[in-house]
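Run Transmembrane protein through structure prediction, thanks.
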Amino acid sequence: MASQRPNRSSWFEDVLIGAVSEGVNHSTFILLNVAGVALVIVLAFLAVVAQGYDVFLVIHVIVLVLCAVALLGLLNWFIAETGLVSAEEQAKALFETPGATDVGPPQPLPEDKKQG
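Sure, done. The structure for Transmembrane protein is below.
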């Protein structure tokens, strides 16, 4: 018996849907945090490596680390204030045709509205 694909979308699909629709879903939130922490770690290592070079380079890298930490903190604060949206709601809002259920067959134009 062949296994059926569950109705639930994959993590990658959730991230893609979250990138093009309103709100932030849980998968996109996790990916944003992982990318932000990775940026902070890379910049911190760059600050350690730059210590043997010019002091102005070290200062610039430290400022970049602080900017990345501030960006990550503000991003998490903003998402906490606005809340998370489920990926199912995002997919429904993205792919559902608005008013598709109450649209009937096309009506002919009245004689005075016809062009030509």
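The longest helix spans residues 55-82.
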